[in-house]
Amino acid sequence: MYSPIADALTAPPAGLDPSYFTRQDLDAYSAEDHEVWSILFSRRMAELVDTGSEAFLSGAEVIGLDASRVPDLEDVNRRLGEKTGWAAIPVTGFIEARQFFACLAERRFPTTITVRPKSQLEYLQEPDIFHDVFGHVPLHANPVFADFLQTFGAVAAQAEHPADIEAMARLFWFTVEFGLVAERGATRIYGSGLISSVGDAANALGPDCDRRPFTLDAVIAQPFEIDRLQDVLFVVDDFAHLFDACEEAERRLREGRLTA
Ligand SMILES: [Fe+2]
């Protein structure tokens, strides 16, 4: 049983560079910020009720997201903490990979708190609060996904050979960012890049994307390109499948190398 304390939850893990971390000031959001959140939320939810994974849909409810305004991370973290002990911690922007993994290993998700401009509703290079909190954080309320992501962070932090680091980046990309899951007799989306984007989601479920069964070996052999629609994605049967793949990655790293 977790006992959440707001300040402890939002503090950066010990030993990490404090310059990465910041606080969310709700009064700093403009009327346009709230409007952008509201437009994006309504637009995505209208589709996600049919195409989103159960874990996303129930997680969004658990953490209290709604269309009316930019979410208050303290409230999100109180709800999330009670459920799985995860927290979204505000960061100033890009965070170095090892520090990012170290945060995941402590059930802390580094979260951008800025809102994209209204002129860039659909596409944006850097993550914003809609990608991070709408796209990622609902999944952290799912106990199995929560365990997977923590384990992923711990394993990724151990990888040292460049090929192994690349393999862990591919595992992250094809699951946390662009993952698909077989559910309710159909392929549903759970990866944040798909949850938060109309265009990427339509591509992932459409005829131009080759949806393959998820295996650890298939994923770590598959290169990816950012900033374009994905030609190949992977479908898991359930999140236990992800957790098992992560444990397998850990076993291989302990014994030598993740990649052949
Ligand atoms: Fe992301």
Automatic annotation (TrEMBL):
NCBIfam families registered for this protein in UniProt: PRK11913.1-2 (NF008877)
Name of the protein in its database record: Phenylalanine 4-monooxygenase
Domain Biopterin-dependent aromatic amino acid hydroxylase family profile: 1-260
UniProt xrefs under Pfam families: Biopterin_H
Organism for this UniProt entry: Gaopeijia maritima
GO molecular function, one term: phenylalanine 4-monooxygenase activity
Protein keywords: Iron, Metal-binding, Monooxygenase, Oxidoreductase
Family: Belongs to the biopterin-dependent aromatic amino acid hydroxylase family.
